[in-house]
């Protein structure tokens, strides 16, 4: 086992879906995977391995924010040999054309975090999605007729902040949404030479007054999970 994951070598598939919420990992395992077995309960960060359309797939929560996802992604890659990682999460819209329940495929992620800068102080490295995964997910979303935006997101450290004016300006510059994990995921994937993608559904808007019901949220999450799973096995 690694420090934060109580699995044995071989317990985790080389393809993994990463929701922030560990209970959503359980939901995915129960509703989409066959013969799912729980491989981690440390800190309640549930992880499962099962099969999807005959292929071995894992799913595990990451917690919220870049410090949390970085711990799990580091260990998944270096201790368990995971090669394809897809984050399925929520994001807040920064753009008036990006509505609640829409899908955002994060082609690139900027960040307010110093995590990457601490390792590369003299560079602003671009954090980008794996193109093959992005391309596959985009076409699946098109086939499912989902409203899908492809572009950059901003991965922030502080969920609560007072930067309303900045949010509007960032949206006007084409940044689709704000969330808290993609930049670290993309950086670690690049660092270790593996593939990663962030798929988000918009749960709230920072620039418009939009709301959504629990049932609507559940349906869009389910669509996102299908896209994530189909992209992983392609
Ligand atoms: N801010 C940051 N992360 C988020 C948000 C938000 O509004 N919504 C979902 N994830």
Automatic annotation (TrEMBL):
GO CC terms for this protein? cytosol
**What do we know about how this protein assembles, alone or with others?**
Homohexamer; trimer of homodimers.
Which GO MF terms does the UniProt record name? Answer: purine-nucleoside phosphorylase activity; uridine phosphorylase activity
Which family is this sequence assigned to?
A: Belongs to the PNP/UDP phosphorylase family.
Superkingdom of origin: Bacteria
Q: Which residues form the Nucleoside phosphorylase domain?
A: 16-221
Residues the record marks as active site: 204 (proton donor)
Q: Which UniProt keywords apply?
A: Glycosyltransferase, Transferase
Annotated site, Important for catalytic activity, chain positions: 217
Q: Which Pfam families match?
A: PNP_UDP_1
Q: What is its EC number?
A: 2.4.2.1
Q: Which Gene3D superfamilies match?
A: Nucleoside phosphorylase domain
Which organism encodes this protein? Streptococcus macacae NCTC 11558
- Known catalysed reaction(s)? a purine 2'-deoxy-D-ribonucleoside + phosphate = a purine nucleobase + 2-deoxy-alpha-D-ribose 1-phosphate; a purine D-ribonucleoside + phosphate = a purine nucleobase + alpha-D-ribose 1-phosphate; uridine + phosphate = alpha-D-ribose 1-phosphate + uracil
Task: Name a biological process GO annotation.
Answer: purine nucleoside catabolic process
Binding of a purine D-ribonucleoside occurs at 4, 179-181, 203-204
Q: Record keywords: Glycosyltransferase included?
A: yes
Q: Where is the signal peptide?
A: none
Q: What is this protein called?
A: Purine nucleoside phosphorylase DeoD-type
- Please verify whether the record's keywords include Glycosyltransferase: yes
Task of the protein? Catalyzes the reversible phosphorolytic breakdown of the N-glycosidic bond in the beta-(deoxy)ribonucleoside molecules, with the formation of the corresponding free purine bases and pentose-1-phosphate.
- Record-annotated residues binding phosphate? 20, 24, 43, 87-90
